From TrEMBL:
<keyword id="KW-1015">Disulfide bond</keyword>
<comment type="similarity">
    <text>Belongs to the PET191 family.</text>
</comment>
<dbReference type="GO" id="GO:0005739">
    <property type="term" value="C:mitochondrion"/>
</dbReference>
<comment type="function">
    <text>Involved in an early step of the mitochondrial complex IV assembly process.</text>
</comment>
<dbReference type="InterPro" id="IPR018793">
    <property type="entry name" value="Cyt_c_oxidase_assmbl_Pet191"/>
</dbReference>
<dbReference type="GO" id="GO:0033617">
    <property type="term" value="P:mitochondrial respiratory chain complex IV assembly"/>
</dbReference>
<dbReference type="Pfam" id="PF10203">
    <property type="entry name" value="Pet191_N"/>
</dbReference>
<protein>
    <recommendedName>
        <fullName>Cytochrome c oxidase assembly factor 5</fullName>
    </recommendedName>
</protein>
């Protein structure tokens, strides 16, 4: 379900972790929780709704790791996590 392609697509948001954020956003907006139950994406993630695919929860974890790596001083040598 990954839709962001770093070389071909250009995101307006050029901040770090923007690709993961875009993928997470699209994953949540296409889930049944948002479409059928009319909940916000935040409510769907916080309630651990069964209609949200596991891919969205994996993207959430990846997004967290990417944001955390921005604060970690070791990333000067290792680089940011994510894509």
């Amino acid at each position: 379900m990954m839709r962001y392609e770093g070389e071909n697509a250009h995101l307006v948001d050029q901040s770090p972790c923007a690709g993961i954020r875009a993928d997470l956003k699209m994953c949540l907006l296409e889930s049944d929780c948002v479409k059928k139950q009319k909940k916000t994406p935040r409510e769907c993630l916080q309630s651990f709704d069964a209609s949200v695919p596991n891919e969205c929860y994996a993207l959430r974890t990846t997004f967290f790791e990417c944001k955390r790596s921005l604060l970690d001083n070791r990333t000067r040598f290792r680089g940011r996590k994510g894509y």
